[in-house]
Every structure is written in C-alpha cells, then in structure tokens.
From TrEMBL:
UniProt cross-references to HAMAP family, sorted A to Z: Ribosome_mat_RimM (MF_00014)
UniProt free text on domains: The PRC barrel domain binds ribosomal protein uS19.
Protein name: Ribosome maturation factor RimM
Pfam families given in the database record: PRC_RimM, RimM
Domain RimM N-terminal: start-end pairs: 12-93
Claim: rRNA processing is one of the keywords in the record: yes
Gene3D superfamilies hit by this protein: PRC-barrel domain (2.30.30.240), RimM (2.40.30.60)
Main location: cytoplasm
Keywords: Chaperone, Cytoplasm, Ribosome biogenesis, rRNA processing
C-alpha cells in the first residue's frame, strides 16, 4: 500500500445541524485541541480533507455547549443558510494546524507505515486508525494474518519512526493466532 500524501486539510469537526435561529451550527469535534477554534479567523468547509476544493468560511463566533462547538460563520448569518452546510467537514489548512510536541504525530502520518514487533518481526502495513475514545486501534493489512486490530496505548506502542517508516509495537498476549 503506498503511503498517503499529506492531506491539504486537517479535520476539526463535522457540522451536525443548525442550532437556534441565528445561523449557529452545532459541530461534533474531531480535534484534540477544540479550544483552538476560538483563536481561528477562518476554517474550510468541504466533504473530504484530501480534496483541494474546500470553501473558506470566516468565523463570526465560537462557543462550546454540551461537548460540541457552536460556530457562526459570516457567510451564513441565518438558519436557512446554515442549514445548507449540514454534513460538511470543518477543516484547517496544514499551515495553521497546532504545532505538535516532539513525540507527537498526526494520525494521517501513520497510514502506510510498516508495523513490527519489538523483536523486529513484520506484522503488516497500517491501513487506518480507529479512534475509540479509550485508545486508538490500529488496523493493519497483514500478509500472514489478514486484517489485524491492535490497540494503541502506552503499553503497546513502543516507537513511531517516521524516517524509517515503521511503528514498533508490543502485542498483547493472545492477539495473534497460533
């Protein structure tokens, strides 16, 4: 599986529905840094972060309510205009993304990396990351085992080496068939 190119945008959330009558939109949050929304002047709306045709929207207001963000855009001041944005992804371009700490990576950077055990045995290629809330689950395509689901947390995730394009993991007992 070829490694994905950097996406043009990173996901911040998804528009669920209008909220109230003044054009606010309820956004389900998909970012680890929701407070950053208050610092942004604009975001991009579109169906897919990998497509370059997203539309720039200027943020008028942002507030948080019951685990979601409520955002109003200058370009959609009424409920009727806001309704037309239902289902769109809310994104930021990579240039305005939150800088990562030294040991952090964006999830998209993991896709396509080879996954190996501590002793160097290759398990397969990381195809996707499932975010479950408790911990992420890495979905691998393994020539030997087929599809593998491996929980990723501090006990199992040993190292991510972007230069070597490898992820090293300690597998939980009984994860692999005998």
């Amino acid at each position: 599986m070829p490694k994905r190119q950097n996406p043009k945008y990173l996901l911040l959330g998804k528009i669920e529905r209008p909220h109230g009558i003044r054009g606010e939109l309820r956004i389900s949050l998909l970012t680890a840094y929701p407070e950053r929304l208050k610092e942004l002047e604009h975001v991009y709306l579109g169906a897919d972060p990998n497509r370059p045709n997203a539309t720039r929207y200027t943020i008028d207001t942002v507030r948080f309510h019951k685990g979601a963000a409520l955002i109003k855009f200058e370009e959609a001041p009424t409920r009727n205009e806001a309704e037309l944005l239902r289902g769109q992804m809310v994104m930021i371009d990579l240039a305005h993304a939150v800088p990562l700490e030294e040991d952090e990576v964006y999830l998209y950077q993991l896709i396509g990396l080879k996954v190996q055990t501590e002793d160097g045995a290759e398990l397969g290629v990381l195809r996707d990351v499932l975010e479950t809330g408790a911990n992420d689950v890495y979905i691998l395509d393994s020539p030997q085992y087929g599809e593998l689901l491996i929980p990723a947390h501090e006990e199992t995730l040993i190292d991510v080496d972007l230069e070597a394009e490898t992820v090293t993991m300690r597998l939980p007992e009984g994860l692999l068939p005998d």
